[in-house]
Amino acid sequence: xxxxxxxxxxxxxxxxxxxxxxxxxxxxxxxxxxxxxxxxxxxxxxxxxxxxxxxxxxxxxxxxxxxxxxxxxxxxxxxxxxxxxxxxxxxxxxxxxxxxxxxxxxxxxxxxxxxxxxxxxxxxxxxxxxxxxxxxxxxxxxxxxxxxxxxxxxxxxxxxxxxxxxxxxxxxxxxxxxxxxxxxxxxxxxxxxxxxxxxxxxxxxxxxxxxxxxxxxxxxxxxxxxxxxxxxxxxxxxxxxxxxxxxxxxxxxxxxxxxxxxxxxxxxxxxxxxxxxxxxxxxxxxxxxxxxxxxxxxxxxxxxxxxxxxxxxxxxxxxxxxxxxxxxxxxxxxxxxxxxxxxxxxxxxxxxxxxxxxxxxxxxxxxxxxxxxxxxxxxxxxxxxxxxxxxxxxxxxxxxxxxxxxxxxxxxxxxxxxxxxxxxxxxxxxxxxxxxxxxxxxxxxxxxxxxxxxxxxxxxxxxxxxxxxxxxxxxxxxxxxxxxxxxxxxxxxxxxxxxxxxxxx
Amino acid sequence: xxxxxxxxxxxxxxxxxxxxxxxxxxxxxxxxxxxxxxxxxxxxxxxxxxxxxxxxxxxxxxxxxxxxxxxxxxxxxxxxxxxxxxxxxxxxxxxxxxxxxxxxxxxxxxxxxxxxxxxxxxxxxxxxxxxxxxxxxxxxxxxxxxxxxxxxxxxxxxxxxxxxxxxxxxxxxxxxxxxxxxxxxxxxxxxxxxxxxxxxxxxxxxxxxxxxxxxxxxxxxxxxxxxxxxxxxxxxxxxxxx
Lengths: 505, 242
Prior knowledge:
The structure holds two protein chains of two kinds. Chain A has helices spanning 2-11, 13-38, 42-89, 94-116, 123-128, 136-155, 157-165, 167-172, 177-195, 201-207, 210-218, 222-247, 251-269, 275-298, 310-317, 320-330, 347-369, 375-385, 391-401, 447-456, 488-493, and strands spanning 307-309, 336-339, 342-345, 426-427, 436-442, 463-470, 473-478, 482-487, 494-498. Chain A is an alpha+beta fold. Chain A folds into three domains: 2-270, ABC transporter involved in vitamin B12 uptake, BtuC, CATH 1.10.3470; 274-406, Winged helix-like DNA-binding domain superfamily/Winged helix DNA-binding domain (Arc Repressor Mutant, subunit A), CATH 1.10.10; 426-504, SH3 type barrels (Roll). Chain B has a domain at 2-83 and 156-236: P-loop containing nucleotide triphosphate hydrolases (Rossmann fold), CATH 3.40.50.300. Helix content of chain B is 34%, strand content 26%. Chain B has helices spanning 41-48, 90-96, 110-122, 138-151, 168-183, 195-201, 218-221, 224-236; strands spanning 2-12, 15-26, 29-34, 56-61, 64-65, 73-76, 156-160, 187-192, 204-209, 211-216. In chain B, helix 2 (90-96) runs parallel beside helix 4 (138-151) and helix 4 (138-151) packs parallel to helix 5 (168-183). Chain A binds chain B through residues 38, 40, 154-159, 161-162, 164-166, 168-169, 171-175, 215-216, 219-222, 224-225, 366-367, 370-372, 392-393, 396-397, 399-400, and chain B through 46, 49-51, 67, 70-71, 73, 75, 77, 81-83, 85-89, 92-93, 96, 99-100, 102, 104-105, 124-125, 127-128, 132, 137, 140, 148, 167-169, 172-173, 176.
C-alpha cells in the first residue's frame, strides 16, 4: 500500500512537483472558496478564471511564454475590478455583470488565440491543466502565491469574517470594505493564475466552490469551515493525482471529480445538515410529538401510578393499530409500562409528562397574556407550540411572566422542579344545590365546551351559585345576576371552591 | 450620550428620501422612529451610521462627529439583511462586536472574552453560545444582535425594525431588554412601523414620513391628527422607497 503511494514519487520527478503544485492549489483555492461561498459570490471565481484566458493570450503576444503569467494576472485583477465597478455604478445586477464580463473576455481571448495561433499555447492545457507538466519554476511561483494568500487570510481573518457576515456593520464601524473586496479579487486572481498549470482555468472554478460548499455542510464556524475545506481541497488534489497516474485520466478532471464526490457525500451524510440527517430529524420530531402527546394523555395529576385502560387510549387515538405503534415506540424507552388492561407511566415517563404539562400550561398562560389569544383557542395553539419550544425559550417565558402558578383555565402549572400543587375544588356537578363559591378551574379537553363556558362567563375566579339540578344539567347563577342552564358535560368540567363571599376577590 | 441629528437630507436617485430631519436622542431613553413603509425610517438610521451619504445634515454623538466615535454606536441591521445559514455560532457573532478593539492577527484577550460572556449573559443567551445562528428563534436572533452591540461597548444602539417577524410574546421580552438597557444609561433608537408596540416602550417618538411630522413623548405625539398626517402622506405618492 505504502509502495503504491511512494513509488511514483521516488521514480518520477514530475510526480513530486506535480503533487506539490496540486496540493498547494487545492489548499489556497479551498480557503478562498469559503469566503466566496459565504458571500454568495461563488461565480466570481468562474468569471475571473474565464477572463484569464484573455490575459494569457495578450501576455503571450507581448512577451511570449514569459508574458503569460503577468498578462494573466493583470487581466484577472482588471476583470474583477470591472465587475465590482459596473455592479456598483449601474443598475445591472451582479450575476448579469459577471456573465457578460466572463463570456466577453473569454471570447476575446479565444479570438486572439485563433488568429495568432501562438505556438507556445496549448489551449487544452490552459483550460484543463497539465499538473504533470509543472516546472520547478512554476512550482515556486505557485507556492509563493499560496503563502501570501494564506498569510493575508490569516492576518485579516476577522475583517473577512465581519465583512462577509454583516457588511452593513462592517461599514458602520468604518471598515474600508472596498479595500477588502479588491483584496479578495487580488487573491482570487493570483490563485487562479497560479493554478493555471496544475488544474487549468475551467477546473479551478470547481476548486473555488466545491471545497467551501462541502465544508459549509459540515461545520458551524467560519474558521472550522476553512480548515475542513482545506482538507477537502488537499485530499482531492492528492487522490486525484494518484488516480490520474494509475488509471490514466487527465489530472485536472480527476481532482475535480474527487472533490465533487466529497461534496455529494457530505450532502447526503453530513451529521446535521445532510439530506439523510434532516430526514432523520423530521422523523424524530414526529415520534417525539407522538410520545409527548401520549405521555400527557396517560398523565393523571391525582395519581402518578394510575393505569389508563387500553380502550380509553384507543378511543383517543381512534384505532388500536395506532395505539400499538405509539406503544411500540415508548415502551422500549422505559417511559411507559404495560399493565393488565392498560398502560401506566414509569417514573421517567411521569417526569416527562409533568414537564409537558408545564410547557403546555405555561404557553397557554403566555399566549393568553402576551398575545391576547382568547381562551377557547389556547389549547390547540399550545398543542402545536409545546413541541417546538426549547428549554431556554420556556425559561424565558417563565421569567417574563414571573413564574405563574395557574394557566388561564385555572389549571395549576407544575414548577420547574416538577412540584404540582393540588387542584382545589370539586366539579360543580358533584356539589349540592345552594352552594356558593368561586370557579377554581375549567376543563379544557373539549374546545366546544370551553367555548360554551366562555359564552356563559364561567371563567376562573368567577362567582357561582348552584341553584338546582334540572334535567340533564344544572341551573346556576353566574356572577351576581346571570341565571342560566348548563349541560352536565359543562358541569362536570367546572371546578368550584365553596366560598361564602365569592365577590371579595 | 446624546445623539443629535440636524437637518438631515438624503436623496436617492434624485428623489428626496428624507428631508431636513432633526431629532435628539438622549442616553437613558428609548427613541422610536415611527412611520409607514417607505417613509425613510431605515434611511435615517443608515445615514446616521454613514451607510448612506446624506445630501446635507450633521450627526453628532456627544457633540463629536460620528467618524470619531464609531465604536460607541452599535448598529443592528434588519434580520432579513443577514444570512442565517452563515457558518457562525452565537458567540462568534457576538465576538464580531469586539472587532474595533482587536489588533491585526492577534488572539482575543481575556477582556474580550469577558465582554462577550457578559453580553451573552445580559441578553439571556449564555446557554446558546455554541448554537449555530440559524437554529435560534427570531427573538433570540435579535437578542444576539443586541449582545453584539453590548460586546462592542456601544452606548448608542440603533435598531432597524427589531420587531419584524417576531411574535408578540417574544416582542415583550425584547422590549423589556431594551428598556432595561436604557435604564442603565444606553441611548436606544429604534425604527418601527408598528405604532402600538413602539409607543409602549418609547420615551420619545419621532413620527416620520420623509420629514418629521411630530416628535415628543408618545402620549402627546400619538394623536390622531399627527398619525393621520404621517400615514396619509403616503397615499399621495404610492412609490415605496425602502
